[in-house]
Description:
By secondary structure, the chain is of the alpha/beta class. It has a single domain, classed as Spore Coat Polysaccharide Biosynthesis Protein SpsA, Chain A (Alpha-Beta Complex). It has helices at about 30-40, 55-65, 80-85, 110-120, 145-150, 160-165, 185-190, and strands at about 5-10, 25, 30, 50-55, 70, 95-100, 125-130, 135-140, 170. It is globular. The chain starts with a strand and ends with a helix. Pfam families: NTP_transf_3. It comes from Ventrimonas faecis. This is Nucleotidyltransferase family protein.
Amino acid sequence: MPVAMVLLAAGDSRRFGTNKLLTEVDGRLMYRHVADEVNAMPEDCFAEKIVVSQYDEILKDLANEGFEPVKNNDSALGISHSVHLALEQIPEHYAVCFSVSDQPWLTRETIQGLLTAFRKNSKGMACVTCEGVDGNPVVFAPEYRKELLALSGDVGGKKVLLAHPENVARFLIKNPQELADVDEKSQLCYNQND
């Protein structure tokens, strides 16, 4: 089954104070970390790569890196709007892997492990899990497309995941830092000194 990768990069960074995605983390802009990890994976991992953002700088940069840029002009509608915009670009028979762009310590090995867990399992969804906590990225089979399109407001795919716990494969990782999404500047100070 072909899988499309969607990078979600449209948030308003309210708690961070400035656009966190354009903040440097370990020598690279935050949004580049996951994008670079995805691009370091074998080409046949994803049938399509998409980035959804309200920021022209991110769209232009990642378009040059092989991502199809999708502009979100209504970020106030919440993450569900980015999910809808991405799905409009993806063939209905594709599975979709959604990843947020504020997890700078996520590795390609984890993304690839998640894909393998999804493909080797009969379950319709797969997520990354560490120490009993489910996190991003998450892969959805085509059968969940309608539920993803029915999301509204600042609600993402986790709602669909929680509605069908029996149909979720989990890829276990050991390093909780990989699942850390950066919401506040203090997280960067703490993590960079680890």
